[in-house]
Automatic annotation (TrEMBL):
Pfam families: Lactamase_B_2 (PF12706). Residues 14-206 form the Metallo-beta-lactamase domain. This is UPF0173 metal-dependent hydrolase A6A03_15715. CDD domains: metallo-hydrolase-like_MBL-fold. It comes from Chloroflexus islandicus. InterPro entries: Metallo-B-lactamas (IPR001279), RibonucZ/Hydroxyglut_hydro (IPR036866), UPF0173 (IPR022877), UPF0173_UPF0282_UlaG_hydrolase (IPR050114). HAMAP family: UPF0173 (MF_00457).
Length: 243
């Protein structure tokens, strides 16, 4: 497995949730499906709560926000999300002081990380009490750490030419992107996305949790060869880390 050597540790919680430790030792989550996540190893359910500084939310589907309210209440972590989600989270009991709402193209600094919200093509709703609640639109993040290391998390999305712009503007070192198909891009689209972005490393996510998410890292690697993509694929099982 690759060694990043940039004082950032990335742990795959499972499905679409990741735990990151910054060069300053701050802990953050990207999305928050932990307790209800069928592939999250049991020991991680307590570990993700330790010294949690921030939770970055990509969109409002249950498999990305399922535990955000409980985690925010228990830990006091700052919840970073699209502006349109803020009233919903306030109504669910997250204090306004813990919420940072902004929008695509904007940049905020939270837990020593400069985060720019990017476009993702996906929906963002939650089903409650027989009603579909709209929670803004889906997004991704470019996360720039204090030592210059840069991660681009695409969010749930199809491939889009916006990714080439993000690659040109921010030169991410590592990309986290979905490969499962059906609800997001499949491995071939993801390989083309990596061609557009041009990062050195990539971590696939949002696959294998359910049978319908049939994309595989092996298929991603195959299609990278098809497109002449030299990005190194780092395949993490739930509970595994790279640093």
């Amino acid at each position: 497995m690759a060694t990043l050597g940039r004082d950032v540790t990335i742990t795959f919680i499972g499905h679409g949730t990741f735990h990151l430790t910054t060069p300053e030792g701050r802990n953050i989550l990207i999305d928050a499906w932990v307790d209800g996540n069928p592939v999250c190893p049991e020991p991680l359910k307590a570990r993700v709560r330790e010294n949690l500084a921030a939770i970055f939310i990509t969109h409002g589907h249950f498999d990305h926000i399922g535990d955000v309210v409980d985690l925010a209440r228990e830990t006091g972590a700052t919840v970073v999300c699209q502006y349109d989600m803020v009233p919903y989270f306030e109504g669910e009991g997250i204090p306004a002081a813990q919420l940072v709402g902004f929008n695509k193209g904007g940049t905020v600094t939270v837990a020593d990380v400069r985060a720019t919200m990017t476009t993702a093509h996906h929906s963002s709703t939650i089903y409650e009490n027989g009603q579909i609640i709209n929670l803004g639109t889906a997004a991704g993040y470019v996360l720039r750490f204090s030592n210059g290391f840069t991660i681009y998390h695409t969010g749930d999305t199809c491939v889009t030419m916006d990714m080439q712009i993000i690659g040109d503007l921010y030169r991410p070192d590592l990309v986290i992107l979905p490969i499962g198909d059906h609800f997001t891009m499949d491995p071939r689209q993801a390989a083309y996305a990596l061609k557009l972005i041009g990062a050195k490393y990539a971590i696939p996510e949002h696959y294998g949790t359910f049978p319908i998410l049939a994309g595989t890292p092996e298929a991603l690697a195959e299609h990278c060869r098809e497109f002449g993509v030299t990005t190194e694929i780092i395949t993490l099982k739930p509970g595994e880390s790279v640093s």
